[in-house]
């Protein structure tokens, strides 16, 4: 009976009818744990199976409409009224049958089900489906935002690599028609102090001054590299030259402090910066 129908569906060459039978207990993977569901299956070529499914859906819709109309029909009606009512009720159903597949985007060429036919018994399932679609769209939006964030992080990493190597890595993400950015290789200015180079003076004050001198010497070398980097704009080049001059001046001041302290302690002064920086007195 139609009231026992759970679903009508086809998959390519398979047509199946799911009926709820309280006298039997059968669990199917399509029922998600429901009991008392009996599945009847037929096989034929795809076009025939699809035609049978469309006719079954239309017949089920006719049963639903007839059931609904019975509840609305008064107890006493003439034969003419009944005939007129059936005519009015049946006319739109013909056009609905014709446009069934065109209007319902959920029915694919190789599969379909009663749930996707838009019958009145599937209103709850339609609401659940809408909620599921909304949830999936929210998840899709979150994933897209996370993907964009990761793409930006990848771009930054690729740009850093290009600045160090002078070559843009092939992993740099590009949009359609986008050209890779031009990156100028950075001049290496990093340095590491060897423990053996640090002085081992018995006097702590003199040892601190000597250590500051070695560190400032490395800073002068780094500033010199930056100042001599090619293809710099005028303002940047001028600024780096000034930074280099300031670093040299500070190095000379540290050496002066060392010599003053050495003379105070009865030791001979040194001339370290003049050996490192020719032309500087």
Describe the model.
One of its GO terms (cellular component) is bicellular tight junction. One of its GO terms (biological process) is establishment of epithelial cell polarity. Keywords: Coiled coil, Cytoplasm. The chain is an alpha+beta fold and 281 residues long. Among the domains are: 58 residues, no CATH class; 92 residues. Helix content is 55%, strand content 9%. The chain contains seven helices and four strands, in the order E-E-E-H-H-H-E-H-H-H-H. A four-stranded antiparallel sheet has the order 3-2-1-4, with helices on one face. Helix 5 runs antiparallel to helix 6. The radius of gyration is 43 Å and the shape is rod-shaped.
Q: Count the beta strands.
A: 4
Structural class: alpha+beta
**What does the average pLDDT come to?**
75
Query: How many helices?
Result: 7
Strand residue percentage: 5-15%
Biggest sheet architecture: 4 strands, antiparallel
Return Rg in Å. Answer: 43 Å
Low-pLDDT regions: 91-109
Strand order of the largest sheet: 3-2-1-4
The geometry reads as rod-shaped
- Percent range for helical residues? 40-55%
Topology pattern, helix = H, strand = E: EEEHHHEHHHH
C-alpha end-to-end distance: 110 Å
